[in-house]
Each structure stands twice: as structure tokens, then as C-alpha cells.
Amino acid sequence: MAAGIPARRTPGSRTRPGLDAERVVDAAVAIADAEGLPALTLARLAAELGVRTPSLYHHVDGLDGAHRAVALRGMRDLGTALRDAAIGRSGPGALTALADAYRAYALAHPGAYAATQRAPTADDAELRAAAERTTEVVFAVVRHWERDDEELVHLVRAVRSALHGFVALESGGGFGLPAPREASFARLVGIQLAGLEARAAGGAVD
Amino acid sequence: MAAGIPARRTPGSRTRPGLDAERVVDAAVAIADAEGLPALTLARLAAELGVRTPSLYHHVDGLDGAHRAVALRGMRDLGTALRDAAIGRSGPGALTALADAYRAYALAHPGAYAATQRAPTADDAELRAAAERTTEVVFAVVRHWERDDEELVHLVRAVRSALHGFVALESGGGFGLPAPREASFARLVGIQLAGLEARAAGGAVD
DNA sequence: CGTTGGAGACTCATGACATTAGTCTTCTCC
DNA sequence: GGAGAAGACTAATGTCATGAGTCTCCAACG
Q: Do A56 and A66 contact (CB within 8 A), yes or no?
């Protein structure tokens, strides 16, 4: 009634399997990463957790809710990874570290990364905030080459596009030839770097 | 039995609704483009064609087959669009035209373009061939900056990544800010161009 | 120490889809 | 005119998502 805290259970005693939202999302991410995002169904998730499907509705808001939770987790973790990578660096070193961290996250968590895309970020403040927190890091790094805010937006989009495109193609099996992908990624980053430098030096590259 | 051509109907008389594989794929592409790839279900497709779901199995191999057919159509049309755009140009002009055509196709056919991704190109010779035909054009254009075949692979991957990343983010609503996307795309292409030029001029940009 | 409230799991029921099997109609060709 | 197949249909099955209502156990409170 006039309750304040809703009677938390002491954190050692549980009812049945003792599910909670975090454990559900953990399992969802694990399934999505290991078997692909489409494999993340409520039935699969329930089986994984040793529970019946309807029970999941106490912890996530249906299938969409599960996907959203995975996306949120992914976006937050990606943002953290980028932030950590960029700390203490600037300019080319920062961009390279950022790029490597980006790719490393996407490869380590393909399911969560994929969930991150197709984000209905419009009416979802939490997801939107996480996405912004991630983009902020890119802004901070790219600002080294461009002071003007409006122009900066374009450059950030370009860098994000390059990174996203690469990891999307890579994890989707889009690179058919046997050439080492690491080297390709290095060239991609190198091109971005050279492009940014040329831009900063020579002016408008349009 | 010993037939050669399987008794094509004269192309004006039809049985019932007179479906054939091409009409089915046309409708599938239309649905995917208009309502998103996930909206392409057999039920939806059958309704669109005024037919019952099982009837579709005479023309496409189930839902997967429908998705594959859309992907194949998309890959072929994209390849043709790129080829047309690159004809009669070379160097920066060719790359710009290629990029514009790429983006135009993805915007005009978001569903077909999306189907193009997540391609199980491995065991599908037809789809593989279409993908190669598309990539060939990029190879031809980028070769202007790089003669060595092995190195060329990396550069082509970089260019494809940039293009794909941009259109994927764009059509997925990944660009939150109101800045004009055309300008962002122009910067993206400009950066690639500057990067390729710098590379060709100065040597290894790694 | 018994009562009560709620969290969390369950069973049951419904509806959308995909997919397979078997049937029927209607051209087209001989 | 008849054979045969192309192409559409109905019926049946299985997987999922989702909602409604039920049961059980734990914890705090009297």
C-alpha cells in the first residue's frame, strides 16, 4: 500500500529457478551471439533458462522486449568499450583504437551488435541515450580534425558508416575472398585517417 | 518424359490467377520494399497475389526461397545499376557515380537491398555469381588507384564497407540528427577519394 | 505462530505462420 | 476426345507468441 521498497528478497534465497531480468537478458545475449539474432525466440530463451515461455513475460516485455533489452545491453557495452579505448589518446591513435574496439566488440558479440541496428530509437529514451553515449565518443575523437559542429556531424557519420559497414559485411560473411580481414580493416581505417587529414589540411573535400 | 522444354504455355492464356515465378518475386520485392523485409511472409505474399499460402510453393521454395529470390533480384539489379553508373567514367568521377547509384538503389529498394545482406552465398552459385558481378564493378573502378591485385582487394573492401555502412545506417534510421544526409554522403565519398588519392601518391597508408 | 500478500512459475487457450500431403480443375498437346 | 501435367485448393500438423487465470512458496506483520 504505502510501501516504499517493494519487499526485496534477501539476495540468497530464491523461489523457484530464481529468474530476474538480468539473468534473462544475459541468456538472451548469449543465444543471440552464439546462434544469431533470429534464433533468439522466447521458446528458445525459456528452454535455455529451464522455464516455460509465459514465465518470461514477468521479466521482459515479450519478444520485442527481449530484442530491445539485447539491443540496449549491446549499445551500452559498445559505448563503454569505445570509451575505454579512446581514453588517454587523441588524433590518429584515438581513431585507430576506437576502430579496433568497435570491430572487436562486434566480432565478440555479433548478436548483440546486430540487435543494436534496426533500433526504433524514436520513442525509446533509454536506448536513445545509450546510442548517444556511444556516438559521443566518436564525436570526441573526430573533433581532432574538425572544429565546426555542423561539419563534424558529417564526418562522424562517415566514420560510423565505415566502421559499421565493415563489421556488418564481415560478420555477415560478405567478404568472399580469402584475403586477411585484419589487413582490410587496417586499410579502411587508414583511408579514413588519410581522408580526414587531407580534409583538415587542404580544406573542403567534397 | 524425353521432353526438352517443359511445355511452356503460350504467354497469354492462363489457368487461374496465372501466377509464375516472376510475378511472385515482383510482389515479394514490392512488399519487402514497402513494408520492410520482416513483413515479407508467405501469408502476406499470398494475400497480395490473391492466392492461398500453399500455392506459393509451386513458384518459390518456401519462405527461405522467397527471401533468396528477393536477394537475388536485388543483387542483380544493384549490379546493373552500378555497371550503368560506371560506364564511360573512371577515377574520381566513376567512384562518385558508383556511390550515388549504390545509395540510390538502396533507398529505392530498401527491402531488396536488405535481403541482399545475410546472404548464405556459400552454397548458392547463382547468388554468388550475382554478388561477384556487383563487386567486379567496384574492382574496376578502384583499380584506378591501385594496380596490385592483392592490395586492391583490401581497398575494394574498404569502399564497399563505407557504402554499405552508410546506406544501412541511413535506411535503418541510424542518423538521429537533422543534418542533411546527402551532404554526409558526399563527405563519406570525399573521404574515400582523398584516402585513395593519398594512398596512391604517398604509398602505404596503414 | 498463523495469516496474508505478492512474486514468480505454471497450465490452458488462441491465433498467426510455415509446411506437407492429397485432391480437383482446367489447359495443352497429341 | 483423352492423357497428363501445371497450378490452385482444402485439410492437417507443428512451432511460436501471447494473454488469462491459477497455484505455491517465501517473507514480513500482526
A: yes
Spatial separation of the C-alpha atoms in residues B171 and B148, rounded to whole Å: 34
* E strand or H helix that includes residue A163: helix A149-171
Name every residue whose Cβ is closer than 8 Å to that of residue A139 and which is 6 or more positions away in sequence. A152, A156
Per-residue cell: B6: 517443359
Across the interface, of B121, B169, B194, the residue whose CB is closest to A198 is B194
Distance CA B132, CA B151 (A): 18
Please provide residue B181's backbone torsions phi and psi, each rounded to the nearest 5 degrees: -75, -30
CA angle, A158 then A159 then A163, to 5°: 120
Q: Which three cell numbers stand for residue A64?
A: 520485442
Q: How confident is the model at residue B12 (pLDDT cuts 50, 70, 90)?
A: very low
Flag if B199 and A190 touch (Cβ within 8 Å).
Answer: yes
Do residues B205 and A190 make contact, with C-beta atoms less than 8 angstroms apart? yes
Q: What is the pLDDT of residues B127-175, one digit of tens each?
A: 999 999 999 999 999 999 999 999 999 999 999 999 999 999 999 888 9
| Selected residue with higher pLDDT from B176 and A68 | A68
Q: Are A146 and A200 in contact (CB under 8 A)?
A: yes
Site from A160, A187, A205, A206 to mutate, B interface, most B CB atoms within 10 angstroms:
A187
Residue A22 CB lies within 7 Å of the nucleic strand C = no
Closest residue (CA to C1') to nucleotide D28 in the complex:
A7
d(CA B112, CA B32): 7
When comparing pLDDT for B137 and B205, which is higher? B137
Question: Smallest Cβ distance to B164: which of A168, A173, A184?
Answer: A168
Which candidate, B1, B185, B13, places its Cα nearest to that of B99? B185
Residues whose CB falls within 8 Å of the CB of residue A11, separated by 6 or more in sequence, listed in order: none
Asked whether the beta carbons of residue B158 and residue A188 sit closer than 8 angstroms, the reply is yes
| Vertex B92: Cα angle to B75 and A146 (nearest 5) | 100
Nearest Cβ partner of A169 from B164, B193, B198?
B164
B183 vs A: CB within 8 A: yes
* Residues A152-189: tens digit of each pLDDT: 999 999 999 999 999 999 998 889 899 999 999 999 99
